[in-house]
Amino acid sequence: MALDLTGIGNENEFYTHHYLTAILENDLKGLFVRWEEHETQSGEKPPYDRLTRLYRNYFALRSRMERLRKPKEILAAQREFLPEILSALGYAFKADHKELSSGAVIPIIAEVAKKNGVPDLWGMETLGPIAENTDPLESLFVSIQYETIEKDSQLTDITIAEIITKKVFSLEEPPRWIILLSFSHVVLLDRSKWNQRRFLRFDLAEILSRRVPATLRAMSALLHRDSICPQDGISLLDTLDESSHKHAFAVSEDLKYSAREAVEILGNEALYYIRSVRKEGIYGKDMADQLTRESLRYLYRLLFLFYIEARPELGYAPMNSEEYRTGYSLEELRNLELQPLTE
Prior knowledge:
Elements: E1 8-11, H1 17-27, H2 29-42, H3 47-52, H4 55-65, H5 71-78, H6 82-88, E2 96-99, E3 105-108, E4 110-113, E5 119-125, H7 160-168, E6 177-181, E7 185-190, H8 191-194, E8 199-203, H9 204-210, H10 213-223, H11 225-228, H12 236-276, H13 285-310, H14 322-327, H15 330-337
């Protein structure tokens, strides 16, 4: 059964879709075992359990924040919650400012540095009315976040995405990771993938309202400090990335041979029909070329349909419709094909 990642957006395939839904759960088992063993030894609750416990405070505060419009009020309210979620994920909340090489300043609320002092991760806070559900990447820093910083050094006129691209990731020694936090979203950026706009997005309201254990486990594993910036060794996220690439290559190899086999099966069935039903002769290279071309077209159409049915979030196939799913979908056709024909 596929891992339930509802509320976690895999934007532009930060990891391959197949890896996240079919492989990730198995690759995270070792981490979950270590967390459970740590709980047994120390009595400290694992990160996913701490995330689950944020539910009540989060929605009580969210109800109050729906009436807030002023940045100062929104900032004060969400800072009742952000330290809690950062703590659950292994980070310390600390409002600070970082001066960039250009002289501009950005506000941060968390930082993890390497042993040599170079930043490895920055946490940034974004503001926006709850009702607007603003994308953190399209948000702007506001003056209230700068406190005593001179106005000439503030970056309040360009989006967070532009700041990250032009000001942060272009530094001589930039952080590898950025976590953007608003009251509604958490966004994880990796500098090595940002040029392709590949990142992970976590919808807090969706995840905390559903409280599905598998989703909370995945969120805690993908965002925890020990997974991203371990004190020693390779980060878990880099290990997952390597595994994702390996499985993508394996799937491509399997698909190549399966596609060839499928074309052969389709072509042979067509030959059988021409010979046995239509009683026509088969001859010439032109017939072979045409048959290959038509079989490939048929195969690609099937692959396209399988893809859009596997990705209901794209909105092309009405997989939420019982009539479509049980009467027209390829999934149902596969189920029918597996039934033995007794008469």
